[in-house]
TrEMBL record:
Belongs to the DsbB family. BdbC subfamily. The keyword Thylakoid does not apply. Its main location: membrane. Keywords: Chaperone, Disulfide bond, Electron transport, Membrane, Oxidoreductase, Redox-active center, Transmembrane, Transmembrane helix, Transport. It comes from Paenibacillus profundus. It is a multi-pass membrane protein. The lineage of its organism: Bacteria, Bacillati, Bacillota, Bacilli, Bacillales. InterPro entries: DiS_bond_form_DsbB/BdbC, Disulphide_bond_form_BdbC, DsbB-like_sf. It comes from the Bacteria. This is Disulfide bond formation protein B. The chain crosses the membrane at residues 20-37, 49-67, 73-92. It is found in: Membrane. The keyword Electron transport applies. Pfam families: DsbB.
Length: 106
């Protein structure tokens, strides 16, 4: 059974559901980062700024894709997600002093 089969059995059949979920995640991440920097006054590091550069546009892109229920709008989110995930892996490795990431400059 594919995902399309399961959504048609529920009667919903909405194409926006994955984009709606991704949009909610991006809104929570955006609000969380703004809360910590603007309200709690935590100053983000350079890698945090790179993560934010990849994350903030996803809120608009995925929200629009969910609203229009069209996959072609969400395709622009893939490069941002992949680059952001790469920054997260590098940032996590540097923070936890992983031997693999210590050889790279920060």
């Amino acid at each position: 059974m594919t995902i399309a089969d399961s959504s048609s059995r529920t009667g919903d059949g909405s194409k926006a559901t994955p984009f709606l979920f991704a949009w909610v995640v991006s809104v929570i991440a955006t609000c969380g980062s703004l809360f910590f920097s603007e309200i709690m006054h935590f100053e983000p590091c350079k890698l945090c700024w790179l993560q934010r550069i990849c994350m903030y546009p996803l809120t608009v892109i995925l929200g629009y894709a969910a609203f229009k229920e069209d996959r072609k709008y969400a395709q622009t989110a893939y490069p941002l997600s992949i680059v952001g995930f790469g920054v997260v892996l590098y940032h996590y490795g540097r923070w936890h002093k992983s031997a693999v990431f210590l050889s790279f400059p920060s």
